[in-house]
């Protein structure tokens, strides 16, 4: 078998076999196939696409390039949630304790942020003392005893994906549904969960900007998961404005805590309930949607979800007192308002621009080596559908360097679209992708 023959086959639009894909991924992972040949293959895939079965084979090959996390020692159906990324997406921090408090084991491997999208690990590590670097034995013990643990992915999982993504990034081959789906699902499937709920974002702050693209990606990922024996579904959710009001690591953790106290933003609460319902059903805690909603509502109202978050923090070396004393978080030196330059109704908020504004004050990473300012970020005071007066506060920027504020301010002002006509609030949930059905709302 030769790489050039396989590249030619895909260039001509033919379907690759499992053995051909395995040969390429194994060879590339082990430096037997050079970058220039893999680049040629990626470009061929970009233009000729991949069939459903090819995408499954590619996902399997990427998984097999490294180790799999075996969670068989954990009792129950392990359910996981994955978001395709967005601005202000702190969902895991609130949702994981809710699900765990209701008896579903939540053994979650999460990632770090890059660019305008935030990472769960960075947000959790804004909690004083908390570590996401857990030994496997501690990770499994925490889930068996407390139903919850959140850790960083080991470098031994899907090494082929890391190499492929770096190459895609510099060869303009990132935007291909099969390559995106296999990248995401290989990490999820290698992490050992039995069932997966995918939160596929759509809109200005999402990787997929259009609904059509988002449904296509969701279908591809759901097909991969179910083909590989994992119960998988996707919820298509809005990212045409930031989720909730807080953008930035410690600010988002505080907002998640407030949500577990019953005081969270309505859109963020709605998302947690919607995703949580499907997680509880896949984990076989209940088979009824209405019952699942009531369980989630009760978990928040009776304080059990908040207590579970405290337990998670304590188990992972953090200070659980942060849930009642926000002064324990690192505080920004400055909190500067951005005031509206006109009056009217908020018609739109470009989520990516808000993410870039948070990045400008240090809340994100320009590169993987960048150091994050965990105290920096933005609190939005107005969302789509709200009324705003001239000189009223649109947002508050939390920052430690006055020189960075001006760039953030300009991005925030540019992100807001203000109209004289009243605008309805945005729809949050756009649809569901199930194993055998697509439902659009």
Automatic annotation (TrEMBL):
Catalysed reactions, semicolon-separated: uridine + phosphate = alpha-D-ribose 1-phosphate + uracil; 2'-deoxyuridine + phosphate = 2-deoxy-alpha-D-ribose 1-phosphate + uracil; thymidine + phosphate = 2-deoxy-alpha-D-ribose 1-phosphate + thymine
An example Gene Ontology CC term for this record: cytosol
Coiled-coil zones: none
GO BP: pyrimidine nucleobase metabolic process; pyrimidine nucleoside metabolic process
Annotated ranges, domain Pyrimidine nucleoside phosphorylase C-terminal: 345-419
UniProt key word Hydrolase: no
Family membership: Belongs to the thymidine/pyrimidine-nucleoside phosphorylase family.
Protein's recorded name: Pyrimidine-nucleoside phosphorylase
């Amino acid at each position: 078998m030769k790489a050039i023959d396989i590249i030619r086959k895909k260039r001509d639009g033919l379907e690759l076999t499992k053995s051909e894909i395995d040969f390429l991924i194994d060879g590339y992972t082990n430096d037997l196939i050079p970058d220039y040949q893999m680049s040629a293959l990626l470009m061929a895939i970009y233009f000729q696409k991949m069939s459903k079965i090819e995408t499954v084979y590619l996902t399997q090959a990427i998984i097999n390039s490294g180790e799999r996390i075996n969670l068989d020692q954990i009792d129950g159906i392990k359910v996981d949630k994955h978001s395709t990324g967005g601005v202000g997406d702190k969902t895991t921090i609130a949702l994981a304790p809710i699900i765990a408090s209701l008896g579903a084991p939540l053994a979650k491997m999460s990632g770090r942020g890059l660019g305008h999208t935030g990472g769960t690990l960075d947000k959790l590590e804004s909690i004083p003392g908390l570590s996401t670097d857990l030994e496997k034995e501690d990770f499994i013990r925490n889930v068996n005893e407390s139903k919850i643990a959140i850790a960083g992915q080991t470098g031994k999982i899907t090494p082929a994906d890391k190499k492929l993504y770096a190459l895609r990034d510099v060869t303009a081959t990132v935007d291909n549904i099969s390559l995106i789906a296999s990248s995401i699902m290989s990490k999820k499937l290698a992490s050992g969960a039995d069932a997966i709920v995918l939160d596929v974002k759509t809109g200005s702050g999402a990787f997929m900007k259009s609904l059509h693209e988002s449904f296509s990606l969701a279908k591809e990922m759901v097909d991969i998961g179910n083909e590989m024996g994992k119960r998988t579904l996707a919820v298509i959710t809005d990212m045409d404005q930031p989720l909730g009001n807080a953008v930035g690591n410690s600010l988002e953790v505080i907002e998640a805590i407030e949500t577990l106290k019953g005081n969270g933003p309505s859109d963020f609460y709605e998302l947690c309930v919607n995703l949580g319902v499907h997680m509880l059903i896949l984990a076989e805690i209940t088979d009824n949607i209405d019952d699942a909603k009531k369980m989630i509502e009760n978990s928040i109202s009776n304080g059990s979800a908040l207590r579970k978050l405290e337990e998670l923090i304590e188990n992972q070396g953090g200070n659980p007192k942060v849930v009642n004393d926000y002064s324990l978080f690192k505080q920004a030196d400055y909190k500067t308002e951005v005031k509206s330059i006109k009056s009217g109704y908020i018609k739109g908020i470009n989520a990516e621009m808000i993410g870039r504004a948070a990045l400008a004050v240090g809340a994100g990473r320009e590169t993987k080596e960048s150091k994050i300012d965990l105290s920096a970020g933005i609190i939005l005071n107005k969302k789509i559908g709200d009324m705003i007066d001239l000189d009223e506060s649109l947002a508050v920027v939390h920052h430690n360097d006055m020189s960075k504020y001006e760039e953030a301010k300009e991005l925030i002002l540019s992100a807001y679209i203000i109209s004289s006509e009243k605008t309805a609030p945005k729809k949050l949930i756009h649809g569901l992708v199930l194993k055998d059905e697509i439902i659009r709302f």
